[in-house]
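agent: user wants the full assembly modeled, not chains individually. Plan: 1) parse entity lines 2) check alphabet per entity 3) run joint structure prediction 4) return tokens. Steps 1-2 passed, two entities, 713 residues total. Proceeding.
--- entities ---
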Amino acid sequence: MSDIQPIVMPKWGLAMEEGALTSWLVQSGSQIEKGQEIAEIETSKLANVFESPASGTLRRLVAKKGDVVPVGALLAVLAPLSVSDADIDSFVASFVVEAHTDEDAAGATVERKLEHGGRTLVFKAAGLQNDATPVVLIHGFGGDSDNWLFNIDELAKSRPVYAVDLPGHGKSSKTLASGDLGELAKAIADLIDEIGAAKVHLVGHSLGGAVAFQILRDRPERVASVVGIAPIGFDERVNGDFVEGFIAAQKRKEVKATLQLLLSDPDLVSPQMIEGVLRFKRLEGAREALQAIAEKNLSAGRQTASFHDLAGEERVPVMVVWGERDAILDPRAAQRLPPFVEVVRLENVGHMPHLEAASTVNSKLAAFFEGAERRR
Amino acid sequence: MSKKSYRDAIREAIASEMRRDPRVIVMGEDNAGGAGAPGERDAWGGVLGVTKGLQPEFGAERVLDTPITESAFIGAAAGAAATGLRPVAELMFVDFMGVCFDQIFNQAAKFRYMFGGKAVTPLVIRTMYGAGFRAASQHSQCLYPLFTHIPGLKVVLPSSPYEAKGLMIQSIRDDDPVIFFEHKLMYDETADVPDESYTIPFGEANVTREGKDATVVAFGRMVSFANQVADELKREGVGVTVIDPRTTSPLDTETILDSVAETGRLVVVDESHPRCSMAADIARLVAEEAFSDLKAPIKTVTAPHTPVPFSPALEDIYIPNPAKIRDAVLAVTRHAR
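--- prediction returned ---
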């Protein structure tokens, strides 16, 4: 029986309670690999492909196309051919959906606030029951902690995870001193102090990558490793159409066109993603915050930050992940990184590898963190 | 951010604008309530509690209980708006609006035009609409098409708690008279609503679902029904786009026409009567501007041309529901040209 692995309805984000299985992309009996796209799932907020959390022989499709089931409900069963159908029947029959993780349960994602110097920094925390070195996830320009929807739960299986809303973004304060990189990095460093761990792993996407490298420069003693996902700071140019378009976009149509630049598959931009961006941009002060941050960091198609001299912090392991079809930051920048940097390049992926190839990125991150911890 | 009801979202919007701008005042029947009865101040907070708590915070000078004379206090609110205040007047049920049509149609709506653009009338009239409350034919109508008909008025139909807060703040900041329609069956619906202030612009439709087979334009409470149908049909392989125009005046015609150009099939869901309704208006728009895009005749889902019945059994079948919307969508998608 222990060879039987359940595949269950994932929990994508705090609000998700149930999901609809829109379609199966695999058939019963097939051999599937961890990270393989096996189904399409839709929630009240988004639709995405579901990547298998495990490898094995798919013995049973329990949920049918169109079924709406709670988070944690059994979708399918993986087991070697040596396991009998009868054993699988009894596994399915006796499967119990684990108590829905509400906010108080250990391991659930919770939303927290850090009030510091008149500023509110909002972040999500998960996996707090784990002892391993925590990881801090820092989103990019115009994003928020929900950008890590497909990563938080997976990373939180083995370590505490903190996904922050950068100043001026998400639910954090929209009032900025200047919006420069130093201010953003200082806010995250305050969070690291608040977490209280000796060191943390930093994962930053795009502008959040520059924030992570800035923290490495300012406070190397607190950094266990840095991962830049399509990071700012290793090239001079940035797609100005995106930055300016994102700030200017007022209507759905305009927001949709800008968001499509982020992904290799434009069909992944759902009405919910568009409305999410509009909801952020409608908040008082959000537009001014974006303008200030862009002016300091991404002005006129140019990146202000530069981390070409990264070698100085060589003792801290660094990994960079880049999608080959990134239309915002040129992935060729990854070719010019110092040799000690581990580089992961992903085909058919745009500017959001952690969303477009979540499963691959999650396993690369987990392995990289473990390696970094062994080196210490 | 937290879960808030439609009722609390509207109250939060009014309260935050009252804090921001001392010209914003609230007036209406029992907006506080309990006047003159010791210990009963703010006993009501409006007939369904939307304005509860405002008078204790802002005082009786800014939260006024009015006599039961709609024609007098709506006229007073229009005059106050024209002379520098920004009143939010509550006219309990839209069904009672008839006694003050002159103040609204001939006065408030015409000031800007008749005074050569020199007058502004930043007036919000909040009112309840909609059937399903077992309140019979004089307390259940959906009269937003009447107000949409009058140039000079803006007409707002929030379809969720999030929409209600952003559209109310926009209404209060707008310099023209706005009729703000609150569906009485939605007050206890909850959803994520930011604590911060935000505005949703008028005349910009929301697209709540995207699909390539049919376009459903739905108003107010009907939006959630349409979403439910779109989700159901998507699992059955039929793609439905759902458009929530948010405001019937101004109307975002571009979003509707763009979508019909893509899908070629239109269903309009409107809780009001069928004649001279938003359903008729949108059908006219698409027949006139996008006839060549249509692959099937337009379908409308509305209440019938009768008063709202008092019989609960009849009232239940009177209101458009997801089953009727589903039938209409399937009728247009299965139509063979």
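agent: reporting back. Chain A has a mean pLDDT of 90. The CA atoms of residues 228 and 320 of chain A lie 5 Å apart.
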